[in-house]
Amino acid sequence: MTEIGSPVAAPAAPTTGGEVSQFDNTAAKKQWQVILKRFTRHKAALVGLVMFVLLALFAFFGGLLWKHPYTETDRRYLPPSGDHPFGTDRLGFDMVAQIIRGMQFSLQIAIFVAVLSTVIGVVLGALAGYMRGWVDALISRFIDLILVIPGLVIAAVLVRNSFVASVAGGGGSNWLIVALYLGLIMWLSIARVIRGMVLSLREKEFVEAARALGASTFRIVFRHILPNTVDVIIVNATLAIAQAVLLEAALSFIGLGVQSPDTSLGLMISLNKNELTLHPWLFFTPFLFIVLISLSVNFIGDGLRDAFDPRQKRVKA
Amino acid sequence: MFRYILRRLLISIPLLIVASFLCFGLVNAMGDPLGEWKLQKPRTQAEITAAYDRTGYNKPFFERYVTWAGDFVTGDWGESVVPGNAGKPVKENVLDAFSVTLRLILGAEIIALILGIAVGVIGAVRQYSIFDYTATGISFAMFSMPLFCVALVLKAGGIQLNNWLESLGADRWIITAGPPGDGFKGSIGEQIFQYSGAYVLPTICLVVIQFALYSRFQRASMLETLNADYVRTAQAKGISQGRAIFKHAFRNALIPIITVSSLNIGANFGGAVITETVFGWSGMGKFLIEAITRIEPYEVLGFMMVTAVFIIVFNLIADVLYAVLDPRIRLD
């Protein structure tokens, strides 16, 4: 199922000479090489990957190279110019420097969330699917519980509660709290998917063989079952990055997200929401960078899904 | 089937009890609802004691919960407690907000579902055509935009449109402050004018995200059934292409999206927080935000009970529909 790929992504069309021999060798190649090959043929995904790497480099190293430090002020509300390509904001800070810093926080949060939610979701999902019985019932009811309790209440407790804030690092820095919150909310879907996959994988012959050989539960789950779900895990983790960037922005908008002295692209947009008509660059530059990040990540995730999917080999009807 | 539904509903009663208790605890952890009021200006000890007495906040946490739960079962959902806003009945307010949200999301959900299914099916049948690429591009762009930005841009655009209409001598059309509280007035034509002005932007906003989700999902499941062996068998038997697509592939491709959309609709009864905030609709989302901001324990609980019932019921509907539509799946 190619979601957006060009026809080039379908490997069943060996038209040029060089392609034929490569295609014939497919079986002899290692699986990950085949996947890599399919991924690199996916144009949109490659563009996405390049774009994402450039954005990440810009976010984490751009500050070292850019002439204006993020603490320096100039005149307020300068429109975009050669000296300030994205203009200056309502306090006179250079927007390029602000974007770099905001993107740094946004990416930091998103990657933290992707890792955290994937680890929790995979471990709990695999446990529920493999152990079944009361473990499964417990984990499933826990998921129901989180679905039913309004997420914003949990967010408000974490953001407001002074005890939580002091544990997570003083000085008013709260990006970690927001990241924790998102990570604790977003594992539900991956846990459900992994549970379903493990439920069917545990009945397979190779698992039975491992069990007959006396492998421990831990070994069966982590060495034999989970490697068969790695495609779903990687695709989900990738897409979680895009989701986290957008959710963090939405939280900032309703005042339950990242707060000063930390910043993020979402916070920048919501602080500038009233500048939309008078000083549009203040609103649209962080907006543009959010869209670029999530678009590139979505393209990568899509390309990965196609690269992992063996049904790619089938000729389309 | 009946026993399954009954069992699921019975299981959800303890779930609701645990969830409401946890939720009450979470609101408690946000702080004292009277804390801010106490600091606004010097209060006498008598005033403070009276306020705590009235709200029941002089009693321990557990006792407060049991009192609330007992009242709730008999139909009394409690009152708001924060002074300045105290004494408002929670039940009426939640149900008002719920009717606003219902009106807002129902139409948007139906439009998004029909559009999403249609575009997804065409995209799958004509895979890699210009239509498919355009639809894919649009839904990816929609997926990648923060919704509140879309809403803010739409709102700014609506105001521009109004100014332009005014400069032409026409009436302002777009309403960005929610539907009029006392209903639509005037002749039928005027009512339609007001109605569309209030609904058009929030509906677009809600359709945008739902459509992206549904069309991608429908396209994927349609591709799956189009490539299935039974569709190829049907084609080999010599039935027409249209019949193979609609009778065999399409009907089966509808099963997953029915599940996804009913889960989604269930969750949406919790209100479209961002759309409601931007366009000034006092629906569930806005109600919750305000209750959290003021720290209103009973309002949050009332909100939770209403949305929880819908989440549970629509989860159940999704599972039952799945089993009804796909005979291979057995409920038990």
UniProtKB/TrEMBL annotation, chain A:
Membrane-spanning parts: 44-66, 105-130, 142-163, 175-194, 233-258, 278-301
PROSITE patterns hit by this protein: ABC_TM1 (PS50928)
Domain of life assignment: Bacteria
Keywords, comma-separated and alphabetical: Cell membrane, Membrane, Transmembrane, Transmembrane helix, Transport
Keyword Ligase: no
Cellular-component GO terms for this entry: plasma membrane
Segments for region (Disordered): 1-21
Location of this chain's protein in the cell: Cell membrane
Pfam family, one: OppC_N
Lineage: Bacteria, Bacillati, Actinomycetota, Actinomycetes, Pseudonocardiales
InterPro entries: BP-dependent_transpt_permease (IPR050366), MetI-like (IPR000515), MetI-like_sf (IPR035906), OppC_N (IPR025966)
Membrane topology: Multi-pass membrane protein
GO biological process, alphabetically ordered: transmembrane transport
Low complexity composition bias: residue spans: 9-18
Keyword Protein transport found: no
Provenance organism: Saccharothrix tamanrassetensis
Family to which this protein belongs: Belongs to the binding-protein-dependent transport system permease family.
Chief location: membrane
Protein name per Swiss-Prot or TrEMBL: Peptide/nickel transport system permease protein
Boundaries of every ABC transmembrane type-1 domain copy: 103-301
Automatic annotation (TrEMBL), chain B:
Record Pfam families: BPD_transp_1
Keyword Cell membrane in record: yes
Transmembrane intervals: 104-125, 137-159, 192-214, 253-281, 301-325
Family note: Belongs to the binding-protein-dependent transport system permease family.
Keywords annotated in UniProt: Cell membrane, Membrane, Transmembrane, Transmembrane helix, Transport
One GO cellular component term noted in the UniProt record for this chain: plasma membrane
CDD domains, per the entry: TM_PBP2
Main location: membrane
Annotated InterPro entries: MetI-like, MetI-like_sf
Domain ABC transmembrane type-1: 98-322
Membrane topology, as annotated: Multi-pass membrane protein
Location in or out of the cell: Cell membrane
GO BP term (any one): transmembrane transport
Classification lineage: Bacteria, Bacillati, Actinomycetota, Actinomycetes, Pseudonocardiales
Protein name per Swiss-Prot or TrEMBL: Peptide/nickel transport system permease protein
Native source organism of the sequence: Saccharothrix tamanrassetensis
Keyword set includes Cell membrane: yes
